[in-house]
Amino acid sequence: MNLTKQLITMVTVQHETDDKPRRMTLNDVFVEALSLSEGLSEELNEVENTILGLLKRYPGTINAEAFSEEFKKRIIKGWNYTIFKEELVEIDK
Fold it and tell me: How far apart are CA 63 and CA 59, in angstroms?
């Protein structure tokens, strides 16, 4: 069995509506933050809606990993999340 290792970014975040911080992958919180823009029609949210639509429509081709970590963090913080901690974690792929 040939397992390869992959580094992922884990973050501890809290959205303004959360009772307590949560630990999750940066990609998961990025998609969660994007989902907050779903259904909004303001021009400001057009980019987020387009990205979310592409991620849902083509999950095998376009995924959250295609975006830079800095871009993901800007989206996350823009949707009222606080990032308390970041760490790289090695997982089996």
Answer: 6
